[in-house]
Amino acid sequence: MTEKGLRVLEVDKTFFGKLTNTLTKMLIPTRVGLNGVLITLKRNNLLKAFENANNDDIEDATKKAGYSKKYEDTYALYLEAIDKYIMDSIYKKVKNDTATEFEKEALSKYYAVVHLKETQYLEYKYRKQKYLLELDYETVNTSNKPKLMEKYKTFYVEKMDTFYKGILKNYSVQLADNIASRQTKENIYNSIFNTLEEYITQILAIKIEIDDDSIYKEIVEEYEKFNVFLAGKLNEVDILEKKMLLLGISRKLFTHSLPLIAAEQCYIKLLKETRRILVNEKNEAKKNNAYKMLIKIIEDYNVKLLSTKIYWDKPAQREEYKVFWEEYNRIEKIEDATEKEKQKEILFIKNDLKALNTKKEKYADVIQYYKNRLVSLKAMRNIPNQFKTFAIKLNGKKKVA
Q1: 172 partner at 20 to 30 Å CA-CA among 52, 223, 338, 379?
Q2: How far apart (Å, rounded) are the C-alpha atoms in residues 96 and 226?
Q3: In the prediction, which pLDDT does 285 show?
Q4: In contact, 163 and 113? CB cutoff 8 Å
């Protein structure tokens, strides 16, 4: 699609300028109506082409290829119609101060997406299409046409899946770039979590509704846990748990788009943030909550990610993890729930201590907290420092040592 200039030009305050402005305001409703009719026609053609392209009963390869090409062409024309609606209608209504709050917000989001074109073209390509479909989805959703909505949802979630996977894949590639600065990587982490949350809140619910795939049934419990964090004000620990749940769900939905190496970096990022809160928090109750959250993330990281890891940089690390995994599975068989949680906590702390001991100076406070916790769990003895003084003779003189 060809981009058009979006600058708002100042109109001369002359008679002809005022007359032109008045005529524009009068013509806007007509233009909006024409654009709406055009989008409806293009949408109907698209849904018909989509249905034919996805018809499994068609076995003829040539015919199937023809339907696929027709679908691609109608999809491009459909997006152009929505884009034209924004340029010819919403833009002019905002310019003439006749736009609703929804239209103003829509144009603002449009600018934000277009702004990506110069710096992140791949992300722009996906987000531009995603934005245009979201805009028309709202139109269809408020049309009170159940049959149309049912057809549109199937097309909509299929395309949205493609866009979100593309966006996350792009972030994963950027995360793997060793040239990226710390601040850039921080922004990428935030973008990944925001994109996952956006998908789960806006698309996953629709997919669960229209698709009976077993993979969605598997994540319903985690999805319901995540929904708890969508209401009310969240503290730092709540935000970390929400991010942990997002990563857990992503391991089922975006295995290839957010590959293991990228997801692992996200988990490590969460562990670092939680350790920081644990050390800096002065309130004992909040510190305890941070510690509990840390244990949760360690378990999630080990069970949902490391247990699926095939390639390890160092064979020794793989062997160490095998020992951990065997012990974890042994503990899981313990029937007493309290004892099971205690043994798992001890296992997680000891395992994390091994990793932190290589960076003792950086994590000295966390290491000490872990050791104190192990003592309280009777998994480590606290041996007090002891010393004695005695007198010795050195060069004929009495010294105290």
Answers
A1: 223
A2: 42
A3: 93
A4: no
**What is the pLDDT, as a whole number, of residue 6?**
41
Contact status, residue 149 vs residue 141, Cβ threshold 8 Å: yes
400 three-class SS: strand
Q: pLDDT over 70 for what percent of the chain?
A: 85
Task: State the average pLDDT for the chain.
Answer: 84
Residue 61 clears pLDDT 60, i.e. is over it: yes
Output the pLDDT for position 27. Answer: 39
The pLDDT score that the predictor gives to residue 104 is 85
HSE toward the beta carbon, residue 266, CA cutoff 13 A: 33
Report residue 75 as tokens. Answer: 């999809």
Task: Please name the amino acid found at residue 358.
Answer: T
Sequential DSSP letters for 265-286: HHHHHHHHHHHHHHHH--SHHH
pTM confidence score? 0.81
**252 CB-side CA count, 13 A:** 17
Q: In 3-state terms, the chain is what percent helix, strand and coil (to 5)?
A: 75, 0, 20
Token pair 């499994």 in the structure block, residue = 56
The answer to whether 246 touches 304, Cβ cutoff 8 Å, is: no
Give the distance from CA 101 to its chain's centroid.
Answer: 27
Q: Which two tokens stand for residue 304?
A: 């949902």
Q: Identity (one letter) of the amino acid at 43?
A: R
Report the share of the chain in percent with pLDDT over 90.
Answer: 54
Listed by start position, the domains of the chain span 1-143, 144-311, 335-401
**CA distance linking residue 88 with residue 29, whole number of Å:** 11
Token match 């793989």: residue?
Answer: 318
Q: How far is CA 346 from CA 59, 143, 322, in A?
A: 59, 57, 17
